[in-house]
Write a structure and sequence with these properties.
Helix content is about 65%, strand content about 0%. The protein contains 10 helices and no strands. α4 runs antiparallel to α8 and α4 crosses α10.
Length: about 240
């Protein structure tokens, strides 16, 4: 006699297979965030003890501006990386890199190549077939969302950062500063630029190294036997 467990198991396996990349990275994100919270709480309490102040509970730390600024400063740099990469690669090319379009495809490309308007197919998204503002909006939706997420996380970092900065100043019996003064401060830009430079370096390294190095089976790599000059080819 068959049971309902086998079909359910098959559906679960199919779901895990179809969403493996996002699930694995999502789980990794949560584990890393939890680890950051534990380590950050310990470090923060060590600093409080050094300053002669009472320790903070783990729950209080999770709701604190110190934890918020550490998290959001990393988020905004990541979203900046993807926003710049998504939009810059429309026009900027790197010969031989799978991270670049082919050399003759610089720009927004033709309606035929992008399958929009009269060139849309039956399985194309509905807004690809329409014209006007809706098509324009959908045509740039990925960059717009990434840019918005960057702007929101940058704002969150700045608000959390000024709160954490003012708390530190108050512990040192110094007057707090306003948001406008903080975003012009060395503390804010030190936090911000140290993340930006690492993200930009990582993208540039990937674009160049993937020209000459391979990872068999990865869509981020060219096929192992592809020529170094092959551009926009994924394995």
């Amino acid at each position: 006699m068959t049971t309902g467990h086998a079909p359910m198991t098959a559906r679960a396996r199919r779901f895990l297979r179809d969403n493996g990349l996002s699930l694995a990275f999502g789980l990794g994100f949560l584990l890393a965030l939890a680890g950051q919270a534990v380590a950050g709480h310990a470090e923060f309490n060590n600093q409080l003890v050094t300053d002669g102040l009472p320790r903070m509970s783990f729950g209080e730390y999770l709701l604190s501006s110190d934890f918020a600024v550490d998290v959001t400063e990393n988020w905004q740099s990541e979203y900046l990386q993807f926003f710049l990469y998504i939009t810059a690669t429309v026009w900027l090319l790197q010969r031989g890199s799978p991270e670049s379009k082919e050399m003759h495809k610089a720009g927004v490309e033709s309606d035929r190549a992008q399958r929009v308007g009269q060139h849309a197919r039956a399985d194309s998204p509905r807004w690809a077939a329409v014209g006007g503002f809706r098509r324009f909006l959908y045509s740039h939706s990925l960059g717009l969302v990434m840019g918005t997420l960057f702007a929101l996380s940058w704002l969150a970092q700045s608000f959390a950062g000024v709160a954490a900065y003012d708390e530190q100043r108050l512990r040192q019996l110094q007057a707090p500063v306003g948001w406008g003064d903080y975003i012009g401060s060395a503390d804010f830009w030190s936090r911000t630029l140290q993340n930006w430079q690492s993200e930009l370096l990582a993208v540039a390294s990937m674009a160049i190294l993937a020209t000459y190095l391979r990872e068999r089976g990865s869509p981020e790599s060219k096929p192992v036997g592809a020529a170094h000059t092959s551009t926009g080819v994924e394995g």
